Known about the structure:
Elements: E1 9-13, H1 18-27, E2 33-37, H2 53-68, E3 71-81, H3 102-113, E4 120-130, E5 136-147, E6 163-165, H4 177-183, H5 185-198
Parallel strand pairs: 1-2, 1-3
Antiparallel strand pairs: 3-4, 4-5, 5-6
Helix pairs in contact: 4-5
Amino acid sequence: MSHRKFEGGRLIVASHNPGKVREIKELLASFDASVVSAGDLNLPEPDETGTTFIANAELKALASATGANAVALADDSGLAVTALNGAPGIYSARWAGPAKDFDVAMKKIESELGDATDRSAKFVCALTLAWPDGHCETFEGTVAGELTFPPRGDKGFGYDPIFIPSGYDVTFAEMDPQKKHAMSHRADAFAKLVSACFA
């Protein structure tokens, strides 16, 4: 199966989340891309009406691609907790409320888990590269781990302070960002995207 290639130049990161934009910019640093975020362009945030990470990533990428008439990259990602039947999942950002307060979201997860002994979880990331003509290339990545409370570390964003990736004893928020970028769910999806569309 052949994939459409990104030819360089302007690339819209379809996000208004500064942490996510920064992480994607770092992942794109070695490519011929002039990165600008949807937030910088004052593009509206579309309603995330999809029922999967992939559906929401495609919806966001297409909204920015058509809104800016340029290739756009969108990420839809979240935390899937085994004992909560995969919640918060696609609603990960919504659990943080309108103020995007992830301290609130992490407390909610701790409270919902109660005395459940299974603390396994995974981060899931769907990445979509979309063109103004409606063409999409989408890839999904995951990273497995365990949850820990109280939250630890201040280097990441979102749920990073409660997530310890498998094989490690530190949270994503305690880890050197370069190390996290090399192994995260976003890095997994990004590696697939790069080999298909940037190589």
